[in-house]
Backbone:
């Protein structure tokens, strides 16, 4: 009786947890889209400076600055390179979030490029229920799998104990 109640409680908790995964991916997407918008604004500024000083491209301006003898100019050029690289990495992630399924989104979040934004997204995360069919199906299936993963060994142990007690009574 107690085990059955605990099993149902555990299933309920795993279901609630699993339903948060699609919600988290949606909020993660919103977060990286905001970061990307900010990066785009910076890159647009780089392009304006490159145009103003007659560089063929942002990359040509950065290459020229990397060869400058002033340390701060070289460091600024390195920072610009990093911003552009980050922009390109996030752009790939955004395409996954726009076209991919939930498992592909989770794979991106778990990747080296995606992990950077997990902490900030978790800080802003608000619990909720997914409104998409994919999110609900994922939550139910993942919740069931988690429940089976953790409750099946407990059931086996309980059955073995009962069998031992019955065997000992004979």
Residues:
């Amino acid at each position: 009786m107690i085990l059955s109640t605990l099993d149902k409680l555990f299933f309920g908790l795993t279901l609630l947890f699993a339903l948060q995964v699609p919600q988290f991916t949606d909020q993660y997407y919103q977060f990286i889209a905001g970061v990307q918008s900010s990066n785009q604004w910076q890159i647009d500024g780089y392009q304006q400076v490159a145009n103003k000083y007659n560089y063929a491209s942002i990359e040509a301006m950065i290459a020229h600055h990397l060869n400058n003898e002033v340390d701060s100019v070289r460091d600024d050029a390195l920072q610009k390179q990093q911003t552009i690289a980050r922009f390109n990495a996030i752009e790939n992630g955004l395409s996954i979030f726009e076209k991919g399924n939930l498992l592909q989104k989770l794979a991106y979040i778990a990747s080296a490029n995606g992990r950077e934004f997990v902490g900030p997204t978790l800080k802003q995360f608000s619990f909720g229920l997914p409104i998409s069919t994919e999110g609900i199906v994922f939550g139910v299936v993942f919740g069931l799998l988690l429940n089976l993963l953790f409750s099946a060994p407990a059931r086996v142990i309980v059955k073995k104990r009962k069998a031992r007690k019955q065997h000992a009574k004979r």
In short: The chain is about 85% helix and 0% strand. The longest helix spans residues 2-52. The two ends are 24 Å apart (CA to CA).
